[in-house]
Batch of 2 targets.
Target 1
Amino acid sequence: MEDRIYVEYMALTELAKRMWADNPKDHDLGVLHGSFEDYGFVDPIMINEENGELLKGHGRVQTAMQRKAAGDPPSKRIRVRDGDW
């Protein structure tokens, strides 16, 4: 396996499908909502290339899903394509 990092935009619905069910970390979504408001989306999600599940970013995906469901506008650096973030 090559030791390389690259950035790829993915639809929020696709990221939601890849969330690791056994993620042990609790997230303070209120803090994340504030961060999205103040700074936008600045820390990329990490995906395990071997199994396709999220390694890092579960709270950010949950926060983005909540914001979209509430009708909030997308944060800075979140692209919208065909109505999906």
Note: The beta strands are 46-47, 54-56.
Target 2
Amino acid sequence: MPQATVELELAKGADISIISLVDCLIEEAQKSRASDIHIDPSNTGVKVRLRVDGVLQEAHIFPKEIHSEVISRIKVIAGL
């Protein structure tokens, strides 16, 4: 079975799984050896950047409609 990626999850549109999306994002960050993930909301979307070797690199842009769901999922994972 092919491994899910962030882009494949985003392409699902209304059928997107926030759980899978966040899991894929964390997995991508780990594989990239990123030290942190930045999630920056704006009026047009949510910019996701990864810090790799001390440099912030733009990774993805999420639709602004899923911002609160992504943050809620991260809080659940973190136990907050």
Note: DSSP finds three helices and three strands in the chain.
